[in-house]
Structures are given as C-alpha cells and as structure tokens.
Amino acid sequence: MARTIMHIDLDAFFVSVEQALNPELRGKPVVVGGKPDRRGVVASASYEARRFGLYAGMPLTTAYRLCPQAIFIEGSFSRYRDASQRFMTILADFSPYLEPVSLDEAYLDATGFESIHGSIHQMAVAIKQRIRNELWLCASIGIASCKVVAKVASELSKPDGLLEVAKGNERSFLAPLPIAKLPGVGKKTERILDGLGINTIGKLSIMSLGVLKSHFGASGEILHRFAKGIDDRKVEPPSAAKSISRETTFGEDTRDRSLLKATLRYLGERVGSELRQRGKQARCVTLKLRYADFTTITRSHTLSQASHTDQTIFDTGTKLLKRELTQGKQPVRLIGIGVSNLVEPGRQLDMLDTSAQRLEQLNRAIDRIRKKYGFTAIQTGRTLLLKDIFPPTDEGYTLHTPSLSR
Ligand code: DCP
Ligand code: CA
After folding, report:
1. What is the pLDDT of residue 80?
2. Distance (Å, rounded) from C-alpha 246 to C-alpha 386?
3. What is the pLDDT of residue 366?
4. Are 163 and 143 contacting, i.e. CB atoms less than 8 angstroms apart?
C-alpha cells in the first residue's frame, strides 16, 4: 500500500533552544559546545555561524579562529531533553505512528491522517506552526513515500523547509544529488565510491549490484535500493527502538585505566537503567573508543544470554576495553558503551541461579531510589572516582558531550 512518510528535523537544535530562551542570542552567530579555550568540538552552530564555515564536529579552537565574534555557550542537556520531549508530544498529536530518531528528529507515518488537515502539505504546515508557536523552534520537513527519500528531502529543504517528493519521482529526485547526501553513505563509503567514479546517487543506482556487494557486502544491496528510492522500512514506535548508548568526551585525553573503567561503569549504569525502564534485555554490548587522533573504533560482544543488569554490561564492556587497550595505544579521547539487539525478557533460565536473581533485585532497588532521589543519589564503588572529575547533579554527572543514540 502507498504510504506517506514525513521526516521532521529541527534546525540548529541546541543553538535554537538557547535562542528561544534568550532573545539576545537571536540572529547572531552562536555555538553550543563550550568556551573556545576548552577542548571539545562544536555541537551545534546557528545558521549565522555556519556562514563563517562553522559546523558540528569542528574543534572549538578552529571555530573561534574562523568566527571570533561568535557567542560560545556551554549549553545544557536537560534543556534540550525537555524541548525534545515537547517536540515529540506535538508530533504525536498528528499521528500515533511516530518514531523518534534522535532528540530533534523523527519519522511520522502520516498515511490516512492527511485528510484531517486538508492535504499532506497543510498537515506539514500545521506541524511547523505548532512547533514555532509552542517551542519557538524551526522544523524542516520532508515528505515522501518512504523513509530514505523523506529524510533526504528534509535535509535538502533546510533551514525552515518543507519539501514534498511526489510518488513516482523518488528516483529522479535523488539522482542528481551527491552520494554523501544518501543516508548510509559515510566518509569511508564515499571515498570508495569516489574511487569507482561514482559521485551522484543516480550513478550509484545504475551500478551493478555485484560490484556493490563485493565492496560493501550486504549493505551494498541496501545502498543500491536506497539510491533507487526504494525503502520498505516501517515507521517504528519507540518500544521497537534498536539500541541504547551513552558516551562522553574527556576534558583531557587519558590512558588512566581506573578513570576509563569508572566512566565505563557510570555510562553502563545509565544504559542499564534505560534498558530496564523500557522493559527490555540486550543480546549485544558495544564499546566505543575515540583516540587522541580521532580514530574511532567500536567492538561488540554478543552475550550468550540476553541481560539487563549493570554488571553484565560493565563486565562485557571492561573485557572489550582490556582487549583494546594493549600497549602502545594512544590516549583515549572519548569512551562510550551501548547495547543492541534488544529483546523482550523471555523466561529466564538463569533465574534459577540465585546470584543472578540477587543482581536483578539490586538493580531494581537502585533504579527505584534513583527515580526518587536522582541518578547520583547512589554511587556504585567504581563511579565514586568520577565525583572529583565531573560535578554530579541530579541529572547525573555533567559530561562533556551529551550522547545521542542515533
Ligand atoms: N549534536 C552533537 N554533536 C554532533 C552532532 C549533533 O552534540 N556531532 C547535537 C547538537 C545538535 C543536535 O545534536 O543541535 C541535532 O543534530 P543535527 O545533526 O540535526 O544538527 P542541528 O540540529 O544542530 O542542525 P541542522 O539544522 O543541520 O539539523
Ligand atoms: Ca537538526
């Protein structure tokens, strides 16, 4: 059946939330990420700042060099989380088939809901208006018959955009665009495709599937389908979300194993707590490290049995960390941990094992206390070390980079 999918993405999200709260920041080059004398990168740059060449991920020192007059602010994750929740609540009024992708981005399956608003175009205008009136934020919306085309459309329409790709035009819409615009094409894929003389989505769509598979394996087939504007992925409401992760960038690169482990424990507890809150168990644990030179690795381990305890997440993460931190490695800039392959808790065989049962009870007790008194009300032995490094708040430790599970 023909579907109508929307991709809604807020413009310059972190910065726009700051501008909504503080009129003095409006219309100016603004950067959220921290003071320019600090290590770290731009998390979000206002469109005024982008005119000077600033973009997310750029080191703050470079941003300062390019645009010294920009206003650099630290930002506050709790403000963005609140704005995000209100954004998602507005969207949910338009269709129950809502899939948040990150704090400021969501897919909406609008099939059948258009007529309430007159047309799909008017529905999108109404969404943009509510977001503007209630949140003082700007949303860009792409409309198409599938996710991948809707996402490319919203991106292309930015800022304050609205772009509808008519059914039947998916492929011709994508064809002239550079391959980097296609979701799934990262820097590495782009380089390989470039080496093959493929620089537009159109050229990618007429490549032989065999060649694509030989370079990219199974994802070659997905790329090929996306390039042709074919994407059967459903809009999946959150309970079906596939992974949970947390990560943080250190103020200074570090080789200190106890600090790495303490941070891993803390991040793992946050992941575990969300996992339990969602009533899920995970089969896969992934460690992420970024080294001083920005090379980034992820290492995953599949558990023999799905789990949602902090201890399992931490133990698996530590094992992966130990294996990774062999001698001669560079200092670590960022550490992260995540779980994926989420399943409904089945009948638990290991519940016969009383130690597993005790662990489970302990986790539940901790969750209850934290819910009542804040995340740092209880600190497990290992995370105590973090107290001197990151100031704890009710929200948890103020980590440098809020993590987004994308
Ligand atoms: N973010 C971050 N670090 C990054 C990228 C993004 O912390 N490397 C945060 C800040 C952004 C938010 O996530 O405001 C949303 O990311 P987007 O990629 O959607 O970027 P923006 O919303 O800032 O800009 P755009 O208007 O291009 O969507
Ligand atoms: Ca955005």
Report:
1. 93
2. 16
3. 79
4. yes
Sign of the CA dihedral 384, 386, 391, 392?
A: negative
Do the beta carbons of residue 126 and residue 108 sit within 8 Å? no
- CA 59 / ligand 1 centre spacing (Å): 15
What dihedral angle (degrees, nearest 10) is formed by the CA atoms of 352, 353, 355, 358? -10
Contact 260, 332 (CB under 8 A): yes
Contact between 30 and 45 (Cβ < 8 Å): yes
Q: Would you state the pLDDT for residue 400?
A: 42
The 3-state DSSP class for residue 26 equals: coil
C-alpha 363/C-alpha 276 separation (Å) is 9
Position 39 scores a pLDDT of: 84
Q: Is 164 in the pocket of ligand 1 (CB under 6 A)?
A: no
What pLDDT score does 375 carry? 75
Q: Which residues of the chain have pLDDT under 50?
A: 347-351, 398-406
Q: Return the pLDDT at 392.
A: 55
The DSSP annotation for 379-395 comes to: --GGGGGGGGTS-EETT
Nearest ligand 1 atom to alpha carbon 104? 15
- Residue owning tokens 């130990």: 322
Q: 97 in ligand 1 pocket by Cβ < 6 Å?
A: no
Tracing tokens 């009383």 back to the chain, one arrives at 354
CB atoms within 10 A of CB 59: 15
Round to whole Å and give the CA distance between 76 and 394.
13
For CA atoms 227, 230, 233, 234, the dihedral sign is positive
Among the bound ligands, the one closest to the CA of 400: 1
Q: Is 9 in the pocket of ligand 1 (CB under 6 A)?
A: yes
Determine the atom of ligand 1 nearest the C-alpha atom of 47. 26
Cα–Cα distance for residue pair 61/246, rounded to 1 Å: 25
pLDDT tens, residue by residue, 86-124: 999 999 999 999 999 989 999 999 999 999 999 999 999
